[in-house]
Design goal:
Layout (H helix, E strand, L loop, with lengths): L1 H19 L14 H8 L4 E4 L5 E6 L7 E6 L5 E6 L3 H5 L7 H8 L4 E5 L4 E10 L2 E10 L2 E9 L1 H4 L10
Antiparallel strand pairs: 1-2, 2-3, 3-4, 5-6, 6-7, 7-8
Length: about 170
């Protein structure tokens, strides 16, 4: 009898833990939600940043190489003032050459991958994102002067299929 009770309690705890951190979506957070409410819904953020405005931003990427990053911005009182998916063509296009890396972190959150190239003194940050129904990659390249450029292109993992004869379609 005790073994069954332990199994039921363990299963219930696992279900509650899963419910406490549901994946973010368009209606997961409402403007006006407090930080504790957001954390109860989405779990701990992957990244937390203090913005120049004095607001705090929390970032919730959907997996280590997912296509969406949800950002919640809280005012100094801890009330959500913004919520949305930030990996968009409009956001990538909003950065000027020379922008500091912190500007990208503040707006887009953490990249999927970072690579450093010592000889060229550059660093590349890779973000996966969706442009409508197309799987995309954005590579932000930085040099010591800041952002050099952002390259947007179709994710090669999804951009073509290989037929039986080795040709692509």
């Amino acid at each position: 009898m005790k073994r069954n009770t332990i199994m039921v309690v363990t299963a219930a705890a696992a279900v509650l833990a899963a419910c406490a951190a549901m994946p973010p979506g368009p209606s997961s957070v409402a403007v006006g939600d407090r930080q504790a409410q957001v954390q109860a819904k989405l779990g701990a953020p992957k990244l937390e940043r203090k913005l120049a405005s004095g607001a705090t931003a929390w970032y919730f990427p959907t997996g280590p190489s997912g296509f969406y990053t949800w950002r919640v911005v809280f005012d100094p009182a801890g009330v959500a003032t913004e919520y949305g998916q930030v990996l968009t063509a409009k956001n990538f296009a909003s950065f000027a050459q020379g922008a500091p890396p912190d500007a990208l972190l503040d707006r887009l959150g953490p990249p999927m991958e970072r690579m450093t190239f010592a000889l060229s003194k550059t660093e590349a940050w890779t973000y996966r994102w969706m442009d409508g129904t197309l799987e995309m990659i954005a590579d932000a390249v930085f040099d010591p002067g800041g952002l050099r450029h952002i390259a947007l292109y179709r994710d090669p993992a999804f951009s073509s299929t290989v037929s039986g004869d080795g040709s692509t379609k």
